[in-house]
Design brief:
The complex is a heterodimer of chains A (312) and B (329).
Chain A: H1 21-42, H2 58-63, E1 72-75, H3 80-87, H4 90-98, E2 115-116, E3 119-121, H5 128-142, E4 148-153, H6 160-171, E5 176-182, E6 185-186, E7 189-190, H7 199-205, E8 209-213, H8 218-233, E9 238-243, H9 259-267, H10 270-277, H11 279-301
Chain B: H1 3-17, E1 21-25, H2 42-45, E2 50-52, H3 57-69, E3 73-77, H4 88-98, E4 109-116, H5 131-134, E5 141-144, H6 151-161, E6 165-170, E7 185-190, E8 193-198, H7 201-205, E9 209-212, H8 218-232, E10 236-241, E11 243-245, H9 249-252, E12 260-267, H10 272-284, E13 293-297, H11 306-312, H12 316-328
Helix pairs in contact in B: 1-6, 3-4, 8-12
The complex binds thiamine diphosphate and magnesium ion.
Thiamine diphosphate sits between chains A (77-78, 123-125, 152-156, 181, 183, 185-187, 246, 250) and B (26, 55, 57, 79, 83, 86).
């Protein structure tokens, strides 16, 4: 029960390929947005809580061109990257988190309860899967070829609703894409202490396909996913499991992981690796993203508070 | 001592005194010690009886019932009380029922702890006060943490009931000191009930208004009592019961006057306060100057942004206003 994350592999992760400018820019936007949030919390300028996706940014970036505007995305507590990959709207998201004018949801939902067009998140683990199944049922009937994509973590596989939804998805041939961001930990609990068997085995139990992604290279991940996502669109539900790494604390300052677990996460971080592998590409875009986010923070912080009137 | 430390000490005491006691919940092990650090030190001192679970509120509540069914004492932590909704079936249809549905009494020593309430900007699904949804379930008792009740004593009372209990713990209260810090007032205990009066015998003997509030609301009520006393020379008495349901209304009666107000953080509609009001009306309607007043949070989701959250949640000034209105009749 006290087992920690698997130690870093003896060999360092493979060299990353050169990314398209827009992919790198998006990765960096998410990275600097999240870093800036932690800084703002540290400085006491933000209220409430937040869960950053530091280290996991490449998951929504890899998926981005594979999902269309007709597809639904269900996000979770760790959803800033999902939102930014879909809308690129750092202003609206920061305004939501800071409760300022222009907030996506008026400052009511905050970091983990967002709704915009076909994008929706909630902070209660597991509850979005059955809802996504319902949406997928609707899409299958009314807009064939579109799908519902749900992001969940490894820990969320503790919730019974996940299995009820998987059963329905398989039974009813639903266009449901379950994206599991397996970062090896749930809050403070290592996956080995909360998940018996494997995610692959659980998908198999329902006759649902499972695709494992261990790479953090968007150029590798995306083409492998493309035909599989096409399969989801024709009614073959799928579980895609990313083995990923949570770089930061669960929320703000609550990181009790042993140093070697944090080190292992850092060694896998695409950010330092990309800077090392492609310095000429990385540095100008990194500086640009940093400046962009600083500008967003300055602009949004100066806005008046959001307005809203209570409704049941 | 802070209330959180008092509760932590109470759990240490329970595990030390009762070799059949278990504590279980999500992320409760050291060094993390639970999302609100209430279980700190427990797993180091009592390994094997402090169990971390997957994110499975329904199952962990069922496991607590199973442990209780086999003669153990089980204390389950729901990380945020909002997620007690995921355990509703285990509580309502199993634990509360099994105490009596098999034709004879089947005691269960089981406590489900629910960190509760808003004020911390956690947003609509992590800030609720769900007490009202559990009121009126035979076989399920509701308690609330209070600055005036020692948690060791409260834990013992819940365990000794031999039926499942929900324990609501206001998250803001965790960081407050135990007891009463305000020299304007004096607190005494009458059984389960904490009675807070102005520290002036003439005022204490004849309060203008009696406020009934669960522990999580007590500080807001006290703040209102202070401003009412200093600014308007209105004296109030505060009654804080530890057990909210079933409520021992007889214990309240000797402390009531003609004007009674119930203050709670739950959102308006179907509240605990309306249950209290009904019980009081049945007993002493003719002694009241008017119906029992209710003051609570607005009938709304609880927003994340601080300035919006404040608009919705019960505040000290709302209690102050409600008392004035009640006195105006
Ligand atoms: C039903 C429910 N139970 C508990 C929580 C508290 N909680 C928030 S995130 C989290 C851990 C989630 O772990 P995982 O699914 O692995 O996602 P990660 O945080 O690693 O991205 C927990 C326990 C919650 N939000 N919802
Ligand atoms: Mg995880």
């Amino acid at each position: 029960m006290t087992e920690t994350l698997a130690p870093a592999p003896a060999t360092s992760p493979a060299r990353l390929s050169r990314l398209a400018d827009d992919d790198l820019a998006l990765l960096l936007l998410i990275r600097h947005f999240e870093l800036e949030l932690l800084r703002l919390y540290g400085a006491g300028e933000l209220n409430g809580t937040t869960h950053t996706c530091l280290g996991q940014e490449y998951v929504p970036v890899a998926l981005r061109p594979l999902l269309g505007p007709g597809d639904f995305v269900f996000s979770n507590h760790r959803g800033h990257g999902h939102y930014l990959a879909r809308f690129g709207d750092a202003h609206g998201l920061l305004a939501e988190i800071m409760g300022r004018e222009g907030a996506v949801c008026g400052g009511v939902g905050g970091s983990q309860h967002l709704h915009r067009d076909r994008y929706l998140s909630t902070g209660v683990q597991g509850e979005s899967l059955p809802v996504a199944a319902g949406v997928a049922l609707h899409l299958r009937r009314t807009e064939p070829g579109t799908l519902a994509c749900v992001h969940i973590g490894d820990g969320t596989w503790g919730e019974g609703a996940v299995y009820e939804a998987l059963n329905l998805a398989a039974l009813w041939d639903l266009p449901l894409l379950v994206v599991v961001e397996n970062n090896g930990i749930a809050q403070s609990t290592p996956t080995g202490a909360q998940l018996a068997g494997t995610i692959a085995g659980r998908a198999a139990a329902f006759g649902i396909g499972h695709h494992l992604v261990v790479s953090a290279d968007v150029n590798e991940i995306r083409p492998a996913l493309e035909p599989l996502v096409a399969g989801v669109r024709s009614g073959r539900p799928l579980v895609v499991e990313f083995r990923t790494h949570r770089l930061g604390p669960h929320s703000k300052g609550d990181d009790t992981r042993p140093p070697e677990a944090v080190r292992a996460a850092r060694e896998h971080d695409w950010y330092d690796r990309y800077a090392h592998d492609h310095p000429d590409h990385f540095h100008p875009l990194d500086a640009r993203a940093r400046a962009l986010v600083e500008g967003v923070v300055a602009e949004v912080s100066a806005r008046p508070p959001s307005r809203w009137s209570p409704c049941a | 001592m802070r209330v959180a430390e008092n509760l932590n000490a109470a759990l240490h005491g329970l595990l030390a005194d009762d070799p059949a006691a278990y504590v279980l919940g999500e992320d409760v092990l050291d060094p993390y010690g639970g999302a609100f650090k209430i279980t700190k030190g427990l797993s180091t001192r009592f390994p094997g009886r402090v169990i971390t679970t997957p994110i499975s509120e329904g199952a962990l509540t069922g496991v607590a019932a199973g442990l209780a069914l086999t003669g153990n004492t089980a204390v389950a932590e729901i990380m945020f009380g909002d997620f007690a909704a995921l355990a509703f079936d285990q509580l309502c249809n199993f634990a509360a029922k099994s105490v009596s549905m098999y034709g004879s009494r089947l005691p269960l020593r089981m406590v489900v702890r629910c960190p509760t309430g808003g004020g911390r900007g956690y947003g609509p699904t992590h800030s609720q006060s769900l007490q009202k949804h559990f009121v009126g379930m035979p076989g399920l008792a509701l308690y609330e943490m209070s600055p005036f009740h020692d948690n060791r004593e409260v834990l013992a009372a819940m365990v000794d009931r031999g039926e499942p209990c929900l324990f609501f713990e206001d998250k803001i209260l965790y960081t407050r000191p135990t007891g009463l810090a305000d020299p304007l007032f004096r607190v005494r205990r009458d059984g389960d009930l904490a009675v807070v009066d102005p520290d002036v015998p003439e005022l204490a003997a004849r309060p203008d208004c009696v406020i009934v509030a669960p522990g999580g609301t007590a500080h807001r009520a006290l703040g209102a009592m202070r401003s009412l006393l200093l600014e308007e020379e209105v004296s109030c008495r505060l009654l804080v019961p530890s057990r909210l349901y079933p409520l021992d209304v007889e214990a309240l009666l000797p402390h009531l006057g003609g004007v009674v107000l119930v203050a709670e953080e739950g959102t308006a509609g179907g509240t605990w306060g309306s249950e209290v009001a009904h019980l009081v009306h049945q007993r002493v309607w003719d002694r009241l100057r008017g119906p029992v007043r209710l003051v609570c949070s607005r009938a709304s989701v609880i927003p994340t942004a601080a300035h919006l959250e404040r608009e919705v949640l019960l505040s000290e000034s709302a209690i102050h206003r409600a008392v004035r209105e009640a006195l105006r009749g």
